[in-house]
Amino acid sequence: MEDIEDLLAGGAGGAGGAPPGFRLPLNAVRINPKTNKSKRSSSKQDEITASNRDSLAPPSLKIPGTQTIYIKTFGCSHNQSDSEYMAGQLTAFGYALTEVPEDADLWLINTCTVKSPSQSAMSTLITRGRSGKKPLVIAGCVPQGSRDLKELEGVSVVGVQQIDRVVEIVEETLKGHEVRLLTRKTLPALDLPKVRRNNFIEILPINVGCLGACTYCKTKHARGHLGSYTVDSLVERVRTVISEGVKEIWLSSEDTGAYGRDIGVNLPILLNAIVKELPSDQSTMLRIGMTNPPFILEHLKEIAAVLRHLCVYTFLHVPVQSGSDSVLTAMNREYTASEFRTVVDTLTELVPGMQIATDIICGFPGETDEDFSQTVELIKDYKFPQVHISQFYPRPGTPAAKMKKVQSKIVKQRSRELTSVFEAFAPYTGMEGKEERIWITEVATDGIHLVGHTKGYIQVLVTGPESMLGTSAMARITSVGRWSVFGEVIETFSSVNRETQARDETKPPCSSDVSSCETCDCSAESCGEKERSGETCNISGNISRQDQNMSDLKKEEKEMMQKLKPRSSVANWGLIDKALVCGVLVSSLTILVLFISIASRVLLRQ
């Protein structure tokens, strides 16, 4: 089946199409109706068959925008952001969303192709949807990277760079048509409607694709070569989401470190532009997404400076995949284990409280016992607080799928051994009794605790009302666990009032460069390390002035209420007030006279 393409009303193609997020008219989209292949004698017959089926559909299914959609997302934060954009466009056109699959008129499944289990889960869900006779739209990396997959036969698909066309796909699928739209075009706009899974967290894709060619990776087949958004468009998006009340901004991509190399900029340029937009009261925090070692080696000092910024989490996800150079070469990772150590050592030295997470693939083809022991040694040396351990899964169409595999039982054994090593670490020991500033953004899965994160992005579970979501607080750590710590809130930080904020905005923003902090509103010491009390970057000044500001605010409110108080007598009316009242009276009398005149004429005729 061919991909559907934009067509101009006059028949010319390529230059036209609808603005991002808007539906094209039906005559501007080429579709293939679902019909039995044996009955396909002509395109005309196809159209007739589709029309007949539409006439038999329930009335609600014939009116676009009246149906309910179930969205299921597999995979990374980039996929989650894509789902949020698709959900936003669908709700903007009237569709309702549900988390109950059985209640939906159509299922939209956003897929992941990184590992076999996630693709297997997709296949299971597709089978379930077909059994329930649900119209299906499959999005994400699986259809983009494996468009001829058997499971995708008979369902509509939308590519990763065509999410701004999801409304068209859904409408045509609900009519019984099978639609495919996979051709890569320009990047989807960042200002499309969006329904966030968490109102306080914005997942911001800064680029798609990557510059790597890892032998095991299927994602490159789907996301393609590097394509970066401009610095200006990303900064504008940051301004927008902050104004919407977002408290955490996650920069997301297949490789954050490669950002901008296709458009003549780099990651430090983008990061420094973004941190200038973050509120000085630390009410909104920035989290830098996953970055592979090769493209940050030359920018380690600049990135460390940004990570020291008060509004940036001192956390970074840097996948190593193996501690063996021979395995890294077979993976085509383009760095050595020593270079990875340089990344970790440099950031740990330059950024106080730095937390680094990494990934390991166990049992890559050709991995020997010695190779695996080097990986175990690397993990033991650094005792990373987070390690994502996975077994090697051969992905169809990748070079690694053709390599000689390690025996399955050995792969499982190595995975269990490394997991045991990792789970023996106690990364949060010694935090009991410490006071940490945390940013609270979600409710824990137990439904009891709220989830906050320290500046090092350590998860802190606290109890409190849900009204605390989206706020920042000081918490005293009461106990530690393997994966998170528990704390009690001892102080909350209130946002500064408008007058104070406007006054602060006239001062230079806090620089991410420690050496330039003398010129901004915080000291070099406060920029270089996070003070326990949180009284940095003008926070202490704002808190100490809170009582005076509240008093001023009450005076302003009193004066405003006095101005808005209704006038008590006609004598206090102004000229305009009196003119308006006279106008109303004259209009009423005119209408009354006309009514009487018309009634009189009707009676005389009778």
Automatic annotation (TrEMBL):
Outline the extent of the Radical SAM core domain.
196-428
Biased composition range(s): Gly residues: 10-19
Needed cofactors = [4Fe-4S] cluster
The ranges of region (Disordered) come to 1-61
Q: Which residues form the TRAM domain?
A: 429-491
Q: Which reaction does it catalyse?
A: N(6)-L-threonylcarbamoyladenosine(37) in tRNA + (sulfur carrier)-SH + AH2 + 2 S-adenosyl-L-methionine = 2-methylsulfanyl-N(6)-L-threonylcarbamoyladenosine(37) in tRNA + (sulfur carrier)-H + 5'-deoxyadenosine + L-methionine + A + S-adenosyl-L-homocysteine + 2 H(+)
Looking up CDD domains in the UniProt record yields: Radical_SAM (cd01335)
Q: Show the stretches that span the lipid bilayer.
A: 584-604
The Enzyme Commission number assigned here is 2.8.4.5
Q: Report the function annotation for this chain.
A: Catalyzes the methylthiolation of N6-threonylcarbamoyladenosine (t(6)A), leading to the formation of 2-methylthio-N6-threonylcarbamoyladenosine (ms(2)t(6)A) at position 37 in tRNAs that read codons beginning with adenine.
- What name appears for this protein in its UniProt entry? Threonylcarbamoyladenosine tRNA methylthiotransferase
Q: Which organism is it from?
A: Cardamine amara subsp. amara
Kindly list the organism's lineage. Eukaryota, Viridiplantae, Streptophyta, Embryophyta, Tracheophyta
